[in-house]
Amino acid sequence: MPETVNLKKSYSALNEKIAKLYDESGVRRSFTVPYVEGQPMADHVAAVGQAAQQNGGLTANLVTSAHHSDGKGWGSGDGHTVGHPAEKLRQTIIPKDDERAKAAIDAAQKHINGLKFLLGDDEPTVQTAQGQLNLVKPTSGAGMNLFDLGVLLINIMHTPTQAVARAHSGTKPGGHSPNRRAPVQEEAQGGQETQETAQGGAEAPGEAPTAAQAAPGAPAAPEQAQG
Q1: Contact in structure between 79 and 66 (CB atoms under 8 Å)
Q2: Which of 124, 144, 190, 192 could serve as 74's disulfide partner, Cβ 3.0–4.6 Å?
Q3: Which domain holds residue 22?
Q4: Are 107 and 11 in contact (CB under 8 A)?
Q5: CA–CA dist 58, 220 (Å, integer)
Q6: What predicted TM-score, i.e. pTM, was given to this entire model?
Q7: Across-strand partners of 83?
Q8: Per-residue pLDDT reduced to its tens digit, 128-151
Q9: Strands (E), the chain
Q10: Is position 55 within any domain?
Q11: Contact, 32 vs 214, CB < 8 A?
Q12: Total structural domains in the chain?
């Protein structure tokens, strides 16, 4: 078990692997909207919405968003939000022993491991996420279509990420609260990024562009680590 985890980084890596799986499986992107250094996230989300509208709308695309794993990370321009046509993804079946699908599943496991580090192996939401991932690990997604695998890998993270947000909120002055509260400090790019630490210095999850949540059936991004 690592001494620290960075859920923002592992979640971004998961999105990056999913997009790579789609790209290298022959599904051409509908659009790519790069991050811009210093650009407010609201402006990036607006640009994604405009690009989607020019390509059938958000409901016709599955959106992933990631900073490059070898780049500067959150708060930088080293990354992008991309859309892949949902219908093409549904029509494309993952073959046996697909290394790109394995890489995406491995990235999902790494993110779950980080959630376990923060919440403990006995946390029900983590156990549910791990159980769902275990269903596809033996086959590496073979026989599934690309859309279903991508949605599965992202959506199983939503509930345990909410649990992390609740636990993180309890470390703030005043303890747990049913209402959202402001983070200690904000950074412009990559959402509001709290610098508080919990359990061995693990960073709280950040917020991916909300465009990733806009399309019905598309992956849901982790919520901001607030109560």
Answers
A1: yes
A2: 190
A3: 7-214
A4: no
A5: 13
A6: 0.74
A7: 31, 63
A8: 999 999 999 999 999 999 999 999
A9: 31-34, 61-67, 79-85, 197-198, 202-203
A10: yes
A11: no
A12: 1
